[in-house]
From TrEMBL:
The lineage of its organism: Bacteria, Pseudomonadati, Pseudomonadota, Alphaproteobacteria, Rhodobacterales. Residues 8-302 form the Fumarate lyase N-terminal domain. It comes from the Bacteria. This is Argininosuccinate lyase. It comes from Roseobacter cerasinus. One of its GO terms (biological process) is L-arginine biosynthetic process via ornithine. Residues 365-433 form the Argininosuccinate lyase C-terminal domain. Its EC number is 4.3.2.1. NCBIfam families: argH. Belongs to the lyase 1 family. Argininosuccinate lyase subfamily. It is an enzyme of class 4 (lyase). SUPFAM superfamilies: L-aspartase-like (SSF48557). GO terms for molecular function: argininosuccinate lyase activity.
Length: 459
């Protein structure tokens, strides 16, 4: 039998395999609450503008609440033959209230309806991501505060570069996730216009009030061009873009946690609550949570790419291709929220091993730059010469199998005569980090100033 929603011109129903490719109810039922909220706003507006009788609006409002409660209770029978959430809800409404249900779709199309539902859904995810990021930043600030002056090696090329502080390293991630927070907020502000009432693509001849429905649904304004309103999925792409960058940050941090929790590094201990064991090796405590977070960027970035490919060649306005937007966004959102929550838990629980960090901070000739700077500052050498002399001193230490502070003054002067005993003051890691007082540098006073700034921003 032909479809009850659009089958007027059809003699036969769809082939089973056609139904399989066409139906979206298997996934778009996740937008049921948004669909009903949109319909309630639309019905109230149809009443307020006199397009529908108050009695019809009343019946629709009550019927939609019944449908919502059935969906929430899990008793709603979803039908693949009814294609999607929009037609499933409307068909059930018809069973409950009869004829007035058929008046709900006045001045509306599934094209503006789905755009509205999906926007509302994505907007909720932007809000959830915002909360997830705030929680993660809070956990990082706690870690930074606890170890604002704990020394550790800073790396470039994953080779020891210069000593930094634990707090400084944690605050680097606060900056990254802080930018993610801004991106999420920016995206929300930009996407917050209502497609509802754009109808199929051209608007409608009914005297609808799009400002009223926009306001009822928490949008700042109606989308200003009906063609754009039904064909725009930028909001989903901006969410996926922000989610991809955030997942990339999570992945980099996860990678560091994997390295840092190894027996070779011992920079951090992850809690039992966020680790797993091995079924054969009794000693193992594996950072599975960090590894899984590290991998999540793959599917989130994949979703971003997939939706870009879906949208890139579509002529205006709606094409059914756009039904392929939802699963990508659903999956990316689920995995982003999971990764944020797990990272927050892991960071909150983890213990930085202050001694291991300090021991590593002094190894690998990490204060060589301090030595070169000293030659410039105290002996007045050009930096390039100081660099060369320091390189020779590092080579000497390496041949002795010791670190820079273990060399004697005679060792030093054998390379460059003018060096005096005060040089040893700058070879210690504590002095090194304390000296990096430039704005944004690793000196504990700078780190504490940044922690205070962020705490104020987050309050
Ligand atoms: N299920 C559809 C989607 O997700 C709803 C819009 C259908 N519109 C149409 N003209 N067939 O995109």
């Amino acid at each position: 039998t032909a479809n009850q929603m659009w089958g007027g011109r059809f003699a036969a129903g769809p082939d089973a395999i056609m139904e399989a490719i066409n139906a979206s109810i298997g996934f778009d039922k996740r937008m049921a609450a948004q669909d009903i909220a949109g319909s309630r706003a639309h019905a109230a507006m149809l009443g307020a503008t006199g397009i529908l009788e108050p009695s019809d609006v009343q019946a629709i409002r009550e019927g939609l609440l019944t449908v919502l409660s059935e969906i929430e209770a899990g008793t709603f029978q979803f039908s693949t033959a009814l294609e999607d959430i929009h037609m499933n809800v409307e068909a059930r409404l018809k069973q409950i209230i009869g004829e007035p249900a058929g008046r709900l779709h006045t001045g509306r199309s599934r094209n503006d309806q789905v755009a509205t539902d999906f926007k509302l859904w994505v907007r909720d995810q932007l809000d959830a991501a915002e909360q997830g990021l705030i929680a993660l930043i809070g956990a990082l600030l706690d870690q930074a505060e606890a170890g604002a002056d704990w020394v550790m090696p800073g790396f470039t090329h994953l080779q020891t570069a210069q000593p930094v502080t634990w707090g400084h390293h944690m605050m680097a991630y606060v900056e990254m996730f802080g930018r993610d927070l801004c991106r999420v907020r920016d995206a929300r502000a930009r996407m917050n216009t209502s497609p509802l009432g754009a109808a199929a693509l051209a608007g409608t001849s009914f005297p609808i009030d799009r400002h009223m429905t926009a306001e009822a649904l928490g949008f700042d304004a109606p989308a200003a061009n009906s063609l754009d309103a039904v064909s725009d999925r930028d909001f989903a792409l901006e969410f996926l873009g922000a989610a991809s960058i955030c997942a990339m940050h999570l992945s980099r941090f996860a990678e560091e946690l994997v390295i840092w929790s190894s027996a070779q590094f011992r920079f951090v201990s992850l809690s039992d609550r966020f680790s797993t064991g091995s079924s054969i090796m009794p000693q193992k405590k594996n950072p599975d949570a960090a590894e899984l977070i590290r991998a999540k960027v793959g599917r989130i970035f994949g979703a971003n790419t997939a939706l870009m490919m879906v949208m890139k060649g579509l002529p205006l306005t709606y094409s059914k291709d756009m039904q392929e937007d939802k699963e990508q966004v659903f999956d990316a959102a689920d995995n982003l929220m999971l990764a944020l929550a797990v990272m927050t838990g892991m960071v909150g629980d983890m213990t930085a091993n202050r001694e291991s960090l300090a021991a590593a901070a002094g190894s690998g000739f990490s204060t060589a730059t301090d030595l070169a700077d000293w030659l410039v500052r105290v002996l007045g050498l050009p930096f390039r010469d100081a660099h060369h002399i320091t390189g020779s001193i590092v080579a000497l230490a390496e041949s002795r199998g010791c670190d820079l502070p273990d060399l004697t003054l005679d060792d030093m002067t054998s390379v460059y005569e003018g060096i005096t005993a005060e040089v040893f003051e700058v070879l210690g890691v504590e002095n090194s980090v304390r000296s990096r007082t430039s704005y944004g540098g690793t000196a504990p006073e700078q780190v504490r100033a940044q922690i205070a700034r962020w705490k104020e921003l987050m309050a």
